[in-house]
Amino acid sequence: MGGKCPHRKVKKRRLSHKTARRGKFLVKADDAVYDELVKLADAGKDADATQLPVDEDLPGMGQFYCLHCDRYFASDSVKEEHYRSKRHKKRIKQMSGPAPHTQLDADLAAGMGMPDNGLKLMSM
Amino acid sequence: MRLEKCWFCSSTIYPGHGIQFVRNDAKIFRFCRSKCHKNFKMKRNPRKVKWTKAYRCLHGKDMTQDSTFEFERKRNRPERYDRNVTEQTLKAIPLITKIRHDRQKKHITERQKQGKTKERERDAKELEQDIQMLPKKDVLSAQKTKVVVKVSQQQTEENLMEE
């Protein structure tokens, strides 16, 4: 992530703030991760059992993925080590809690009723 | 024209106000002012920030369930224009808001009642414990309490006998 030396004279090789922040943009947001977990739980699948697609740009060909933290690892042992970390456990606790705040929650708190979508046009 | 609600603090966003953030999964986040936008960027949870509506509703500070909340809602279907309906709606809006405000006021006074009784109990206890600290003439006035006077039963019986 990002360049280092902010005092460099050569314009091309100065610190790029955008590249320094790029990792932040790529991280999945809490509510997106939560939705994914709920989807998996509804389908009754285990997170580890699903076959991950091979991607050579990702660490470990994208095979060792932690769903809760949205991180890829180089190998199985590193992943296991991550599972034992405090950060991961904290994340699991957070994700098993109540659903993250959404726009619907904000609307309800503002004194609006549930959205009215009218009659169903097609019988499902 | 739609009056949207702020994602963070749930206040109304009028056209031309606030800022809107569209995440790369096409989810829209609207903010009423830079304060809310900054708080979102800091990844704060509105349920844990005390000045937001979400916090107040969750902790019983504000009224949450009321029939007046059923009127304002997102209607995701076309509405055929009807002059009479529009007129009546416009007439009803100030009336409903007044009712809602009255009920909200009542809710807050009801909520504060508990604290007031507790405060009174605390004061009574303090007075009882530290009464020796007061000068004597004040003690006499503080000890003046209502004395229950019993009305003798005999009188009533006599009255009955006479009748």
UniProtKB/TrEMBL annotation, chain A:
<feature type="region of interest" description="Disordered">
    <location>
        <begin position="84"/>
        <end position="110"/>
    </location>
</feature>
<feature type="compositionally biased region" description="Basic residues">
    <location>
        <begin position="84"/>
        <end position="93"/>
    </location>
</feature>
<dbReference type="GO" id="GO:0043021">
    <property type="term" value="F:ribonucleoprotein complex binding"/>
</dbReference>
<dbReference type="Pfam" id="PF12171">
    <property type="entry name" value="zf-C2H2_jaz"/>
</dbReference>
<keyword id="KW-0862">Zinc</keyword>
<dbReference type="GO" id="GO:0003676">
    <property type="term" value="F:nucleic acid binding"/>
</dbReference>
<dbReference type="InterPro" id="IPR022755">
    <property type="entry name" value="Znf_C2H2_jaz"/>
</dbReference>
<dbReference type="InterPro" id="IPR000690">
    <property type="entry name" value="Matrin/U1-C_Znf_C2H2"/>
</dbReference>
<keyword id="KW-0963">Cytoplasm</keyword>
<comment type="similarity">
    <text>Belongs to the ZNF593/BUD20 C2H2-type zinc-finger protein family.</text>
</comment>
<dbReference type="InterPro" id="IPR013087">
    <property type="entry name" value="Znf_C2H2_type"/>
</dbReference>
<dbReference type="GO" id="GO:0005634">
    <property type="term" value="C:nucleus"/>
</dbReference>
<dbReference type="GO" id="GO:0008270">
    <property type="term" value="F:zinc ion binding"/>
</dbReference>
<keyword id="KW-0479">Metal-binding</keyword>
<keyword id="KW-0863">Zinc-finger</keyword>
<protein>
    <recommendedName>
        <fullName>Matrin-type domain-containing protein</fullName>
    </recommendedName>
</protein>
<keyword id="KW-0690">Ribosome biogenesis</keyword>
<feature type="domain" description="Matrin-type">
    <location>
        <begin position="64"/>
        <end position="94"/>
    </location>
</feature>
<dbReference type="GO" id="GO:0005737">
    <property type="term" value="C:cytoplasm"/>
</dbReference>
<dbReference type="InterPro" id="IPR003604">
    <property type="entry name" value="Matrin/U1-like-C_Znf_C2H2"/>
</dbReference>
<keyword id="KW-0539">Nucleus</keyword>
<dbReference type="InterPro" id="IPR036236">
    <property type="entry name" value="Znf_C2H2_sf"/>
</dbReference>
TrEMBL record, chain B:
<dbReference type="Pfam" id="PF01246">
    <property type="entry name" value="Ribosomal_L24e"/>
</dbReference>
<keyword id="KW-0539">Nucleus</keyword>
<protein>
    <recommendedName>
        <fullName>TRASH domain-containing protein</fullName>
    </recommendedName>
</protein>
<feature type="domain" description="TRASH">
    <location>
        <begin position="6"/>
        <end position="44"/>
    </location>
</feature>
<comment type="similarity">
    <text>Belongs to the eukaryotic ribosomal protein eL24 family.</text>
</comment>
<dbReference type="InterPro" id="IPR023442">
    <property type="entry name" value="Ribosomal_eL24_CS"/>
</dbReference>
<dbReference type="InterPro" id="IPR038630">
    <property type="entry name" value="L24e/L24_sf"/>
</dbReference>
<feature type="region of interest" description="Disordered">
    <location>
        <begin position="101"/>
        <end position="130"/>
    </location>
</feature>
<dbReference type="InterPro" id="IPR000988">
    <property type="entry name" value="Ribosomal_eL24-rel_N"/>
</dbReference>
<feature type="compositionally biased region" description="Basic and acidic residues">
    <location>
        <begin position="107"/>
        <end position="128"/>
    </location>
</feature>
<dbReference type="InterPro" id="IPR011017">
    <property type="entry name" value="TRASH_dom"/>
</dbReference>
<dbReference type="GO" id="GO:0005730">
    <property type="term" value="C:nucleolus"/>
</dbReference>
<dbReference type="GO" id="GO:0003735">
    <property type="term" value="F:structural constituent of ribosome"/>
</dbReference>
<keyword id="KW-0690">Ribosome biogenesis</keyword>
<dbReference type="GO" id="GO:0042273">
    <property type="term" value="P:ribosomal large subunit biogenesis"/>
</dbReference>
<dbReference type="InterPro" id="IPR056366">
    <property type="entry name" value="Ribosomal_eL24"/>
</dbReference>
